[in-house]
Write a structure and sequence with these properties.
By secondary structure, the chain is mainly β. It has one helix and 14 strands. It holds the Pfam family TerD.
Length: 191
């Protein structure tokens, strides 16, 4: 059963049987919003980019994004860059996290999405972030971005250690920047 998350909501990543999830996929999806023009509605391709920033004690130690598809330790993997979004029913970009392989010093993984071409989220619709149990394909949680805004990025969610397990928190914080590096000042307060 999927949990529809609201901004700031956290859920445990424990399985119903008491076990711990071992591998999750953070899927991101979006569509270009139609614009009214002289000749009716039209859309413009939107290139959003998903990134995962790995933190140890609030310090960034690694990142996975379209130019660095696998974390240095191999526990986090990006499936590849989608330059247009909205091409199918599934995720436009996904980041796979092997929670069992994440080194013990990594305590948070923050997922961001930014417009590399600088288009604002006013031009985006149906943007979502979802967490899927990679072992069986079951969607666990979904955070839907409500409405667009005059910003170029979102700090979507984070997966963080709680004791021996992990939690996911929907963040939904708007920011401005074309890359994850531009977003670091906005990420640090949500750690």
């Amino acid at each position: 059963m999927t949990v529809n998350m609201t901004k700031g909501q956290a859920i445990s990543l424990q399985k119903n049987d008491g076990g711990t999830l071992t591998a999750v996929r953070m899927g991101l999806g979006w569509q270009a919003a139609p614009r009214r023009g002289l000749f009716g509605s039209r859309t413009r391709e939107i290139d959003l980019d998903a990134s995962a920033v790995l933190f140890a004690d609030k310090q960034p130690v690694d990142v996975v994004f379209f130019r660095h598809l696998v974390s240095d330790d191999g526990s986090v993997r990006h499936t590849g860059d989608n330059l247009v979004g909205g091409v199918g029913q599934g995720d436009d970009e996904a980041i796979l996290v092997d929670l069992a392989r994440v080194p013990v010093h990594i305590d948070q993984i923050v997922f961001t999405v930014n417009s590399f071409t600088g288009q604002t989220f006013q031009e985006v619709q149906n943007a979502f972030c979802r967490l899927v149990d990679e072992t069986n394909g079951q969607e666990l949680a979904r955070y839907t971005l409500d409405g667009g805004g005059n910003y170029t990025a979102q700090i979507m969610a984070k997966v963080h250690r709680v004791g021996a397990g992990w939690n996911m928190t929907a963040l939904g914080s708007s920011a401005n920047g074309r890359t994850f590096q531009d977003l670091m000042p906005a990420i640090l307060p949500v750690l």
